[in-house]
Amino acid sequence: xxxxxxxxxxxxxxxSAYTLTATLLELLSHPKDLAKVxxxxxxxxxxxxxxPSYSAIEALRHFNAAIQESLRLHPGVMSxxxxxxxxxxxxxxxxxxxxxxxxxxxxxxxxxTFITHTNPDIF
Length: 123
Fold this sequence. Notes:
The chain has 123 residues and is an alpha+beta fold. It has helices spanning 2-10, 13-29, 31-44, 54-58, 61-73, 113-117; strands at residues 80-84, 90-94, 99-103, 108-112. Helices cover 51% and strands 16% of the residues. The strands form 2 sheets. The protein has a two-stranded antiparallel sheet with strand order 1-4. Strands 2-3 form a two-stranded antiparallel sheet. The longest helix has 17 residues, at 13-29.
């Protein structure tokens, strides 16, 4: 039972720490954005001894954008996203090379979130 409790409490520790580190890295690398986030947080917390409400944090546009952008650029888990089209062929047109590829039904395809999140034609 102790193992189960430890698993529930600590399971997300590594990815959470990575996300916080990546967010701080991005903010420190972009001082103008950091200043906007700091300004929003200061306005949302006039009393440093009282936590703002969830709805107040949710309304912080720059703060939430910084987190979302960090998650886009630094996903906590790097894995491939498999997809299968069970009934229809997948038609892929490579515009850069002028080629077309047809994958028959049932073919497993996959790509990493990093590829999709950093490709301006997709994201």
